[in-house]
Amino acid sequence: MSFAAMMLVAIGCDLAFGWPAWIYAKIGHPVTWLGALIGWLDRHWNRAGTARRARGIAAALVVIGLSAALALGVQILLPDGWPGMVIGGILAWPLVALRSMHDHVAAVAQPLVAGDLPAARHAVSMIVGRDPSQLDAPGVTRAALESLAENSSDGIVAPLFWGVVAGLPGIAAYKAVNTLDSMIGHRTPRHEAFGWASARIDDLVNLVPARLTGLVFALVSRRPGAALTAMARDARHHRSPNAGWPEAAMAGALGVRVSGPRIYADRIADEPFVNAACPDPTPADLHRGLALYRRAMLALTALIGALAILGI
Fold first, then answer.
1. What are the beta bridge partners of residue 90?
2. Cα(35)–Cα(244) distance, rounded to whole angstroms?
3. Do the Cβ atoms of 223 and 252 come closer than 8 Å?
């Protein structure tokens, strides 16, 4: 069975339908199911004490192991040949988010271009963790571009990468890791120890996809040299060992700066700019970023299609 062909079906379903609201209303979404399990473990296992880190490791292994085991059980039951690949692709469909990523960022770009800053702040609050209430137009644009770049890796390239490598168990285990990190992988008093394993595992499984995402952004851009230079120079200075790669590539490709100081609910993070010598992005640059994203996703789909033809 070609796992690449399976992922190609998943991409097709996502582009055609997204994740329809009526399906979400009836059964939710696999990430919400994972979130419910992680929330239960956080409430019941995350207690103060010397074994807090050990309980966090156990929680991560339970969530990842259960996700992979259930997906493997389903994959074993799939029929051989193209019927199995189609069914597997449909099952992987909700774990791919090409369409929703584009729609969320486009929802920021539209009011920005129209000059409606409050609406743009509200739209960007749906995709970033920082407080957008004090952001000016360049700040909102930077936040949206950073989210577009980072989530292209976390939400699209990484799950597809692990899906091509290991099929349904690969993509399901990755989404478990990513959801764990987003929920408990924070450096806060409550999660510093309990979420330690989740954050470290997420860093590990995103090492290759993040760099691959940056490379694809660079190669499909109109400024590949500048994008590659920005990656080589700035990616390692980012707060994340992985997010800096796609963010630096997008900043270099567009000739703008991103990152920099930001306000979260509980703190101010004084972080360096990525591609600092360039100007702040304008609302028009957000549309350019979306065009770069579309070209990158087309190239990624073509690459997976080639792997499917080769039977990988």
1. none
2. 26
3. yes
pLDDT tens track for 118-137: 999 999 998 887 778 878 89
Q: Is the dihedral of CA 276, 215, 103, 20 positive or negative?
A: negative
| Structure-token match 């851009």, residue found | 221
Calpha distance 162→310 (Å, rounded): 17
Number of domains composing the chain: 1
3-state helix, strand, coil split of the chain in percent (to 5) is 75, 5, 25
Residues 6+ apart with CB under 8 A from 187: none
Which residues span the domain enclosing 269?
3-309
Write out the two tokens for 36. 């419910």
pTM, rounded to two decimals? 0.93
pLDDT in tens, 100-116: 999 999 999 999 999 99
Q: Quick one: pLDDT at residue 262?
A: 67
Which helix (H) or strand (E) segment is 268 a member of?
A: strand 268-269
CA distances from 259 to 94, 151, 153, 156, 178 (A): 29, 14, 16, 21, 21
In whole angstroms, what is the distance from residue 197 CA to residue 61 CA? Answer: 9
